[in-house]
Amino acid sequence: MDGGQSEMRRSTEHKAQTFNGYFFLIGLPIFWFLSYLLIANALPGLDGGKAGKVTFAFVLVSTVILNVIFVTGFFMVQPNETRVITLFGKYSGTERTDGLRWIWPWMGKTKVSVRAHNIHSERVKINDLRGNPVDIACNVVWRVRDTAQAVFDVDDYREFVNIQIEAGLRTVGARHPYDDMSEDDQTTLRGSADVINSELQAELNDRLAVAGIVVDEAGLTHLAYAQEIAGAMLRRQQADAIIAARTKIVLGAVSMVEDALDKLSKGGTVELDDERRAAMVSNLMVVLCGDREAQPVVNAGTLYQ
Predict the structure, then answer these.
(1) Band of the pLDDT at 65, cuts 50, 70, 90?
(2) The sheet that has 90-95: what strands, in order across it?
(3) Mean pLDDT score of the chain, rounded to an integer?
(4) Is residue 156 very low, low, confident or very high in pLDDT (cuts 50, 70, 90)?
(5) Cα(65)–Cα(85) distance, rounded to whole angstroms?
(6) Closest residue by Cα to residue 142 from 111, 162, 116, 164
(7) Burial class of residue 157 (count of CB atoms within 10 Å of its CB; 0-12, 13-18, 19+)
(8) Residue 201: what pLDDT?
């Protein structure tokens, strides 16, 4: 003990000492026959006085007790299911062999499933790396790896899983921004699903190791800005989309104008001085970058009239 505190002793799963139930099932009729013979042999003692009655009562009670012990010792283990065996509060092992088994009836048998469990978490509101409120939910596939830790090291391992899933989701969600708003945002909740899912699985495995539980798969199933900022963030995304589209249009228009002027000059189609070249560039950029269709105008004069 250090500083008045002691660390929790970790449990470790090991195999329980149980017996093949089918062997005992075959021997059950034989035991019943022997019990019948014992009672039949003790029946004449009822007429032999007090000693004979005591002997008959002892044989009868002993036979009944042995039969109860024999019959109540059977238990069944389904595939991908276990029984955690305890003796007066002490862990005696875990039986993973499926089928009919037999053990002394005064030993406790706690059923623990080692099948895969699927949990879809509730939507929780968290703050991302920038402090923006985000609604998020996930799906987790988990199973019990160490039955001794699941039963003895936590109070309720199913409830423990539910709580740790929410805690792990909040931790991972707070590490990254929802969306990329700068060049430094290499990992985002919306755009880096594989990275986020891997981080969530690793975080949950680290948290659930104390309960002997392993997470096989974890991934986000819902991700959205919280209702109070959803409208503002939607307008921002629309503005980003418009800016990106305009940038692409301008770059394309510049490339087309340069190509047109280059071909006109090389082909000798028209001789353009600097002023006429500037006017043509202006007209082409207006036509190519405008939101509306250009209206043709016939110029009957010169460039200067």
Answers:
(1) confident
(2) 90-95, 81-87, 108-113
(3) 80
(4) very high
(5) 22
(6) 116
(7) buried
(8) 95
